[in-house]
Amino acid sequence: MPSKPKLGQNFLRDSQAIERIVNALGDLVGETVIEIGPGRGAITRALAARAERAIAIELDRELAAYLRDQFPAERVRVVQADVLEFDFAAAAAESGKRLPVVGNLPYYITSPILLKLAENHAALDRAILMVQRELADRIVAGPGSREYGVLSVTVQMYGPVQPLFTLPPGAFSPPPDVYSTVFRWRFAPRFAELGVEKAGFLRFIREAFAHKRKTLANNLRAAGYAPAVVQEAMAAASVPAQARAEALGLEELARLWIELGKGRLITA
User: 83 falls in which pLDDT band (50, 70, 90)?
Assistant: First the structure.
């Protein structure tokens, strides 16, 4: 079955990589696993052999029909749908516990899928995901690195991430123009632990990283915070006056957000 480039279809064909991906999920006995973008079923086959059940979410109608012919319905439930519309909470409720997720994410829609998974963290336990290497570098980056930014902080606020391995274009059919990295994401949100309100803090993160060449103080002033407010909050949070956002870890960013909110109003 030929691939459809407009759907970002690059099918994994490296058997050792498939084994490593499924092994990274851990013990699957008695588990229901959600697979995003199963394609021709290379990973699905390994999941069906180890898990109690797999839910394969496939956008392509022809591939969904193909997968239904390949696997017994009691082991693999094929859902022909856009993953952004899938009800993860209902799937977890049916299973009776939080679910593991695996997927080779289409490059053109990776960020929306990550945000969808983050929004459904209560239904999910862990994820093993494959994305374009450059995007993975941004996801797992730590403070002080060039790749660290809004995506890094947003994803990591929903739980720790760990890069596992990188695959060359030749591991896929057809070969993409980029390398792909597999990473692990454990869903354990840190908002309550760090004492921040989710929507407000993530909005602050977008403001703090708005212009990477500017200092954090300049970005916050551009977002509408009064200069005196920024200066006082940064001092109270022990953040250097000339610091850039990419130099601050999650704890420091949370501490600064809290200080900014202590009776300090954004100017009109």
Answer: very high
Question: What is 193-260's CATH number?
Answer: 1.10.8.100
The side-by-side arrangement of strands in the sheet containing 76-80 is 76-80, 53-58, 32-36, 99-104, 124-132, 180-186, 161-167
Q: pLDDT-based confidence at 103, cuts 50/70/90?
A: very high
How many residues would you count in the chain?
268
- How far, in Å, CA of 12 to CA of 18, rounded? 8
Q: Where are the domains of the chain?
A: 5-189, 193-260
Radius of gyration for the chain, computed over Cα atoms and rounded to the nearest angstrom: 21
Assess contact for 239 and 215: CB atoms under 8 A. no
Tell me the HSE value of 48 on the side-chain side, using a 13 A CA sphere.
Answer: 18
Q: E strands of 210-261, at which residues?
A: none
CATH class of 5-189: alpha beta
